[in-house]
């Protein structure tokens, strides 16, 4: 009778556990690298590719609302039709609002925030030493010049007698500069800075999309600036991740001025209240169906505010944004369609 090989009963479970741990570690590493590339909280340092580092400076995750704003502006013009030429125009305007001018804004913001990022987000490209300050300056200047070139091209393409889109681009880039750079540095004041940010994310790309396909008028300007007060609330969400650094450097963000919980309450009230008031305006111009849809889109935002944000704004800011903001941006499109339908 042959001698059998003894079985190690513990070997297989141990190997399974080790494999599971390794897979979880690899997944977390991939997630951290993705967050790093997109410019999100919870990133990991160590990237060596200069092009990925440059992309990280531009925070691609922040391009999405600006690109969407162009869509809302095209809808509110009431003149957008699905032709190849219009699709290409819109795509070029999205490139302008997203990668170029938002990329410029985020890069220049990182440049002037390098000291505070060393406290709050040391993995960012500049404080981590992954890119030199000279390279950063070259990047934001190039993005700005490319943006102006694309804006002027859009004006020529649209046949504007006055370069409206170039003018909006110059204005927007100026706001981005004084938001980040001394001596004004609007972001030092929680109200001014966050409103400038909210208006830049809602009003400016909306104006560009509307001007590209129609005539930009004062009603659209006023309404989108009003809508941007909801954007102010969205902008405040980004302040919770940097409370400690803001406090150390004397920046008067809302969480520093009012405390975390009170600032969170202010934030959600701004988001919900001004969307509700926009819905009321849609009722006043007899766009009742669109107003009802907008109200229905506010309800899940309130739900996620209660589930995540108000319970722990610092820990749940990213989770809240991912859950609630899709409903906010769809509400913007509903509003744009309503304005286009009403011929505002």
TrEMBL record:
CDD domains given in the database record: PT_UbiA_chlorophyll
Locations listed in the record: Membrane
InterPro entries: Chl_synth (IPR006372), ChlG (IPR011799), Prenyltransferase_related (IPR050475), UbiA_prenyltransferase (IPR000537), UbiA_sf (IPR044878)
UniProt main location, coarse: membrane
Transmembrane segments: 136-154, 160-179, 191-208, 220-237, 258-283, 322-342
E.C. numbers: 2.5.1.62
UniProt superkingdom: Bacteria
Protein keywords: Chlorophyll biosynthesis, Membrane, Transferase, Transmembrane, Transmembrane helix
Topology in the lipid bilayer: Multi-pass membrane protein
GO molecular function terms attached to this record: chlorophyll synthetase activity
Primary enzyme class: transferase
Matches recorded under NCBIfam families: ChlG, chlor_syn_BchG, PRK07566.1
This protein's name: Chlorophyll synthase ChlG
The encoding gene: chlG
């Amino acid at each position: 009778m042959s001698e059998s090989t003894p079985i190690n009963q513990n070997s297989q479970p141990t190997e399974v556990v080790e494999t599971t741990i390794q897979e979880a570690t690899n997944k977390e590493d991939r997630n951290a690298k993705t967050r790093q590339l997109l410019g999100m909280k919870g990133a990991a340092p160590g990237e060596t590719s200069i092009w990925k580092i440059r992309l990280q400076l531009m925070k691609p995750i922040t391009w999405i609302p600006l690109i969407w704003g162009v869509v809302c502006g095209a809808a509110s013009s009431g003149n957008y039709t699905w032709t190849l030429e219009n699709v290409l125009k819109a795509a070029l305007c999205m490139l302008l609002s997203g990668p170029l001018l938002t990329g410029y804004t985020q890069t220049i913001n990182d440049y002037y925030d390098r000291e505070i990022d060393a406290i709050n987000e040391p993995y960012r490209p500049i404080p981590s030493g992954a890119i030199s300050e000279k390279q950063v300056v070259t990047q934001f200047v190039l993005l700005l010049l490319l943006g102006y070139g694309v804006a002027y091209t859009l004006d020529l393409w649209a046949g504007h007698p006055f370069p409206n889109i170039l003018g909006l681009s110059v204005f927007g880039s100026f706001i981005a500069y004084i938001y980040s750079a001394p001596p004004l540095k609007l972001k030092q004041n929680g109200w001014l800075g966050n409103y400038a940010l909210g208006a830049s994310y809602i009003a400016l790309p909306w104006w560009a999309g509307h001007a590209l396909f129609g005539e930009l008028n004062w009603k659209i300007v006023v309404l989108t600036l009003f809508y941007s007060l909801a954007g102010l609330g969205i902008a405040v969400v980004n302040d919770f991740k940097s409370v400690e650094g803001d406090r150390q450097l004397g920046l008067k963000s809302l969480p520093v001025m009012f405390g975390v919980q009170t600032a969170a309450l202010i934030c959600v009230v701004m988001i919900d209240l001004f969307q509700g008031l926009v819905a009321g305006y849609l009722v006043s111009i007899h766009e009742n169906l669109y107003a009802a849809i907008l109200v229905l889109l506010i309800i899940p935002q309130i739900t996620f505010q209660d589930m995540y944000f108000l319970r722990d704004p610092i820990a749940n800011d990213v989770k809240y944004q991912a859950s609630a903001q899709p409903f906010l941006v769809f509400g913007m499109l509903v509003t744009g369609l309503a304005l286009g339908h009403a011929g505002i």
